[in-house]
Fold this sequence. Notes:
The chain is an alpha+beta fold. It contains 13 helices and 17 strands.
Amino acid sequence: FNSQKLYYLLERKSYITIMTDKGDDRFAISVQVTNIEKPQDYKKDTNYTCKISIETTHGKWSLNRSFKDFEIFHANLVINDSFRGLNFPKIPARKGSVASIDDYLSSKKNEYTQYLSEILHRSILLGAKDILDFIQAPEKVRRAAKKVMEIENIPVKSGQMKKEGEKWKGYRSRFFVLLPNYLLQYFETADAYQIGIQPKGSIDLTLATKILVYDKTSNPYSMGIKTPSRIWKLQCDTEADRDEWVQSLRNLLQNPQYTGYIMDYNEAQNQPQQSNGQQSMTNGHHSSQNGKKGDENEAKFKEEISAQQSAMEEQDKQIVELQTRMQSLISKNELKTEQLKDEIAMEYKQQLDIQRETMVKWKEKIQELSEEIVNIEQERKDADQEYKNKILELNKEIEELKEMNNEQKKAIDDKDDVISKTQDDVKEMGQAIMKLQKEAEGRKNKQYSISDKLFKIQGDNVSKLKYGKQSRKMVIFINKINHLFYYDDNGSNSKGDQKFIVINDISINNNTIQKQMNKPWFLVIGEKRSALFATESNEIRDKWVNFVKKSLGKVNDENDDQKDDK
């Protein structure tokens, strides 16, 4: 880690020196969607074409990309494991809410300029091959962008920490790498990082709003990175380790030199012009002063230059010392590497000797097994031949059985025809019998009834009868259920006052009633009340009495009633 950090400091120092001595060598980029062309049938086809102009410190070019190209490009970025956890800008939607087509094109031009600008100004993204291919970058620009990406990928700090899951709140150990491009990547293990396996995820520090330090008791040696979407909780093994990580993160986030973004080309061009303008204004102001004061300022300026040169020489000495230390560390690492190679070679040789002995034993075992396999193969061939002979015999028997089966099948088919015809006849007979049975059952269960227009005397028992009050009623008696229904006979079809009596008995013998009545009559007796009806003639009365008694099963009493009547 010390050698990596030293190399990073040297690289960063040289990069800063280049920017200081040669301001025009800094890599900067700007992008602008200059025009959007409509398709021929723009009302149905929404795949417009964007004309894009890109200008960098290493060249300027233009290209065309359609809305669909942008959508495919964005989808590939999102699923790329190298950028897992990175905060991408939102791809502009094709649909718009503006009134006219000109307003729509102007709006989309600004949206796509903003989208592509956010992508290309991220230092971690610009050097990626997919992005350089999408913007059709020239070779000179590709080399410069990759150089920036390589420098930004030199770790600031790395080490093992435990990370709390987003859904599952347990902690898992991960190997973390802090990069100057504002990315904190985490891998399964340190070996996974060393051999170049893609990270399990990353924390985009451009979204970080605060670095938190937790209480020792509830969350020992823990810290948090607060973002708008979640708080990333990390746990170290010791308090010192935790403090180092916190300080490294805060130094990176508070250092104005590192932002995770590449400078905009237009802003980089304006800065020298502004400084030149300020210098000319200062010179004009100083020209109005007297010559003596100008000489004093010139002397002070020379002293400042001399002091800066001394500071630069001191920095150069420190760089030489760092380079010497770095070379020493590299030499030590090379010696350790050679020793490690020798140890590995010796161990590998021992393993080879063990494998040779094992292979000799296995070779002998294989020869024994080969002889057994030959014997087994011969036995299998003999068994196969015997099996084939049996199969041939069985096939002959099967053919003979097939012929017999065909003959029997033909005889069975003939019998089936006869049985089928017989079954059809039986079925027809059964249907006829069922039909007759239903008709007989219908006749048996059929309810007969009798009805007439009769006179009803008011009163519901013999003692309460009012012989002077009679009303004409329509009377109906239904056989089997022994229900007698009656209602007013007023010429209308309304049966609102319909009443009924469940009859237990019928009588025409009562001296009290006989004395009061001047018409033929009969009395029906129910469970709770009775009713007295008068008829026009004896024939109608006898018809009713006989029908009701027959329904009640009291036909034997008919003669006694007739005698009493006489």
